[in-house]
Amino acid sequence: xxxxxxxxxxxxxxxxxxxxxxxxxxxxxxxxxxxxxxxxxxxxxxxxxxxxxxxxxxxxxxxxxxxxxxxxxxxxxxxxxxxxxxxxxxxxxxxxxxxxxxxxxxxxxxxxxxxxxxxxxxxxxxxxxxxxxxxxxxxxxxxxxxxxxxxxxxxxxxxxxxxxxxxxxxxxxxxxxxxxxxxxxxxxxxxxxxxxxxxxxxxxxxxxxxxxxxxxxxxxxxxxxxxxxxxxxxxxxxxxxxxxxxxxxxxxxxxxxxxxxxxxxxxxxxxxxxxxxxxxxxxxxxxxxxxxxxxxxxxxxxxxxxxxxxxxxxxxxxxxxxxxxxxxxxxxxxxxxxxxxxxxxxxxxxxxxxxxxxxxxxxxxxxx
Length: 368
Ligand SMILES: *Cc1c(COP(=O)(O)O)cnc(C)c1O
Known about the structure:
Cofactor: pyridoxal 5'-phosphate
Bound molecules: pyridoxal-5'-phosphate
Strand content: 5-15%
Order of helices and strands: EHHEHEHEHEHEEEHHHHEEHEEH
Catalytic activity: L-histidinol phosphate + 2-oxoglutarate = 3-(imidazol-4-yl)-2-oxopropyl phosphate + L-glutamate
Family: Belongs to the class-II pyridoxal-phosphate-dependent aminotransferase family. Histidinol-phosphate aminotransferase subfamily.
Keywords: Amino-acid biosynthesis, Aminotransferase, Histidine biosynthesis, Pyridoxal phosphate, Transferase
Protein name: Histidinol-phosphate aminotransferase
Oligomer: single chain
Helix content: 25-40%
Radius of gyration: 21 Å
């Protein structure tokens, strides 16, 4: 018997990096330092409280969580969005899926500039939107003239920009971001007469950016068609929690609210996320260390003869390899799992603990 599976999904594979049981896992950009005993206790208390009311549905509007996200952003970036500018879901991946449900779909286009996060094309597929991949420059940075031509020709409903970009690690500067926002503000998307293209800046790795690199949050006031997404999966050391959030114009948040599933954020998720935000500094205690270790790892890889892309994230894209799969396997055989992703001749490694970084360098060796 054949199931009525949609033709769009035929021969498609589920997304995901290999989850292999090796000692050193540097392939999914997690923070390698688990929560401290103090934070775990606070989370346990919060979860325990939430369990008392487990017979009830959670707060649909997650009011407490919104307030805490706002306070966290004020301290992290100097921008304090009001709670009605904030949206949260089970990972920023769910937010992006909701964004496409609300703003893309059949007859509309979703665009990004590759190489970038490979999930964007999957959300497009899942919402029957047309995915358009614009090209980057030779250094994998945005090529603004080309981007402008691509956007004006394709007229996408949504433009995704990851900053810092995954898998290359490079952040956008304000000039680039403003240029894209200005271009998008002039474009009437295909399938949405009278509207303007949305620009979604995916800041999953924002907390790892180098000193002086701005956050797109600072531009929200000026550009109503800007959406900034963030996550607790990376710097926040809470990938297991599944909590992502977006900041945008309050009217857009109201529209997102329409397409969410009922009670999409469980009371346990909300309680533990609130406890995590109360202890943001503790959870991110190792971020400064990770940034310093990243910079040191970049230098070391360059010393060893590799080509390394500038990183504002907690991972590094390096090459070049004529056969990167063989290189990936060679490193894996020594107990270190990295990621086979990004530009054709490159591999990506997550910055781990000091011993993990050492194990990676030992396994990798020198570029001959
Ligand atoms: C890891 C990552 C995310 C985070 O996804 P979550 O669903 O929040 O875990 C989002 N965007 C990019 C580019 C990422 O690399």
